[in-house]
Amino acid sequence: MKIIAATWRLLNHKGFFILFLVLLGGLYGTKSDRYYGWTNTAVRKGEPIIADGAGYYCHLPQWFIYKTNNFQFLDSIAKKYPKSRFTNNVYVPGDGKPPSNKYFTGSAVAMTPFFAIGHWWATSIGVDADGYSWPYLVMVNMACIFYVLLGFLGIYFFLRKFGIDRFWIIVSSLTIALGTNLGYYIYQLSPYSHIFSFAVIAWLLFAAKCWADRHSAKNFLFLCALIGFAIIIRPTSVLALVFIPFLFASTADFLSRLKALVTQQRLQLLAGLAVFGVFIYFQLWNVHLQTGVWALNTYTNETFEFLWSPKIVEVLFSWRKGLFVFAPVLFLMLPGWFVLFRRNRRLFWGSVLSFVLFTWITASWWCWWYGGGLGMRPYIDVYALLVIPIAFLFQYSRIWMQGILLVVAFVGCQVAQVYEFQMKYNIIHYDDMSYEQFWRVFMRKEMRYQWSVHLYYEHLPEEQPLKERTLHFRRKGKPMQPGVFYKVEEWNYDDNPVVTIIPQPGDSCYLFGARVKAEIYLYGEEINPSFHLGFYRDGKMYDERRFFVGQFVPEIKELHPVTIDFFPDEMYCQFDSLRIDFEESRPCSGIRNARVTQYVYRQR
Question: Residue 435 in 3-state DSSP?
Answer without folding.
Answer: helix
